[in-house]
Design brief:
Length: about 80
């Protein structure tokens, strides 16, 4: 993790989510700092779905199929653009 600390403003605790150094850690770290969480596949680790489903203050958009209506995504992006 020392390689990741490239700025004095980044503290060790800011990188805790990335400690495991795997894809799950990347997803977890990205979600930690994201404005919203979207799932782009039906093959998501159950652990992540449960963990992200409990996040407060962020909109979570679940995966609803490859040929589903995109209205919820468009509304999400419009909401985020309006912030």
């Amino acid at each position: 993790m020392k390689h990741a600390i490239i700025n004095a403003n980044i503290k060790d605790k800011d990188l805790d989510a990335f400690k495991e150094s795997d894809n799950t850690a990347l997803f977890r770290g990205g979600a930690q700092y994201a404005d919203a969480i979207t799932f782009g596949s039906d093959q998501i680790e159950k652990k992540l779905i449960e963990e992200f489903g409990k996040v407060k203050g962020k909109k979570v958009v679940p995966f609803k199929g490859w040929d589903s209506d995109l209205t919820e995504y468009l509304e999400l992006y419009n909401d985020l653009a309006g912030k």
